Amino acid sequence: MTTVGILGGGQLARMLALSGAPLGLRFLVLDSAQDACAGQFAPMVVGDYTDQAALDQFASNIDVATFDFENVPAESAHWLAERRPVFPSPRALAVAQDRLAEKTLFLDLGIPVPDFAAIGTRESLDAALIKIGTPCILKTRRLGYDGKGQFRIKTPADADAAWTALGPQADKVGLILEGFVAFERELSVVAVRGRDGEFRAWPITENWHVDGVLSASLAPARVDDTLSATAIGYASKLAEALDYVGVFALELFCRDGVLLANELAPRVHNSGHWTIEGSETSQFQNHLRAVLGLPLGDTRVLGHACMLNWIGAMPDANAVLSEAGGHWHDYGKQPREGRKVGHATLRADSTRELADALQRVGDSLDRREQVAPVIARLG
Ligand code: ATP
Ligand code: MG
Ligand code: MG
């Protein structure tokens, strides 16, 4: 009996545990929150990632470790890696934890990125504003997620407000200024690399964000083969360079037909949730296979899929459940503003059927603005 340890007990850990059950796997989750939603399906060690007693208990009861959360302190990941196999490696995790290290690696590999500059002081912000220009975004280098730790600078006059908001964190988590990309699309590559170096990618996903939080994903994205091959080529190069093992997502902006890399998520990713029903093998299943050194599953799509995120509170399930290709995922979390509490995936054999299903669900749940950009793309 193999036990997979997961650092972090959110919905990603929960879906990993659900996906691993048919493989006969056991799980152990480490999270500081007693009511972490993965705990409904897997035993937990309740403790902080730096709590030595909790780490000891966790390490001694698992065969291999992986992450639901990328911001586990590097020292804890290293400590664990000395005792048990850890995938992805602490080195890959460290790069993906830091927007500056990440963007520097992208550039080294010939992957285009938005203009950026490291910011340490108010003077360096002023200098970078001149170099990069406005609009731009000041971001924390570490610990940001769902658009948190970001300040959008529309004109130079916003610099004071940006510094008031994020300057106090400059020493602790570091800051980076990025040029604002007026993209026509946001895309992601969700891919997996096995312990033996085998690489597979799912077809490209198009994503829509609202206030920095993912709202909807469409797969396969309606992009041409050249763009798709370029995006997957970037993901493959990155995975190779980091000797990455497991699933990851590369987030990309597409502006004037050119791809710019935004960030690397070193874990299963929200923009890959559609793979549960929309692909031969889900990202969760393939992540576990990769981490355990098992053969990877086929990443081909089954028709067309759209994932809709539920933020704050769950809507009524019936509108989705009454669709032929409707699938419901309730993470079992308490409602809270801005919190990802669940998602739905609609799957169909044609883009036309998918658009019709989205229209019905959008009307019925009064969420027309959430489905509208996807329907527009499906044409
Ligand atoms: P995630 O939840 O994906 O980890 P995050 O907090 O790490 O989010 P980003 O991915 O950097 O944040 O930004 C969130 C969203 O904000 C992006 O998906 C994009 O829509 C927008 N955004 C971020 N950076 C830029 C940029 N430089 N130009 C334009 N839009 C941007
Ligand atoms: Mg991120
Ligand atoms: Mg992101």
TrEMBL record:
Gene3D superfamilies: 3.40.50.20, ATP-grasp fold, A domain (3.30.1490.20), ATP-grasp fold, B domain (3.30.470.20). It catalyses: 5-amino-1-(5-phospho-beta-D-ribosyl)imidazole + hydrogencarbonate + ATP = 5-carboxyamino-1-(5-phospho-D-ribosyl)imidazole + ADP + phosphate + 2 H(+). GO terms for cellular component: cytosol. GO terms for biological process: 'de novo' IMP biosynthetic process. InterPro entries: ATP-grasp (IPR011761), ATP-grasp_carboxylate-amine (IPR003135), ATP_grasp_subdomain_1 (IPR013815), PreATP-grasp_dom_sf (IPR016185), PurK (IPR005875), PurK_C (IPR040686), PurT/PurK_preATP-grasp (IPR054350), Rudment_hybrid_motif (IPR011054). SUPFAM superfamilies: Glutathione synthetase ATP-binding domain-like, PreATP-grasp domain, Rudiment single hybrid motif. Keywords: ATP-binding, Ligase, Lyase, Nucleotide-binding, Purine biosynthesis. GO terms for molecular function: 5-(carboxyamino)imidazole ribonucleotide synthase activity; ATP binding; metal ion binding; phosphoribosylaminoimidazole carboxylase activity. Its EC number is 6.3.4.18. Pathway: Purine metabolism; IMP biosynthesis via de novo pathway; 5-amino-1-(5-phospho-D-ribosyl)imidazole-4-carboxylate from 5-amino-1-(5-phospho-D-ribosyl)imidazole (N5-CAIR route): step 1/2. Belongs to the PurK/PurT family. Catalyzes the ATP-dependent conversion of 5-aminoimidazole ribonucleotide (AIR) and HCO(3)- to N5-carboxyaminoimidazole ribonucleotide (N5-CAIR). NCBIfam families: PRK06019.1-2 (NF004676), PRK06019.1-5 (NF004679), purK (TIGR01161). This is N5-carboxyaminoimidazole ribonucleotide synthase. It comes from Lysobacter capsici AZ78. The gene is purK.
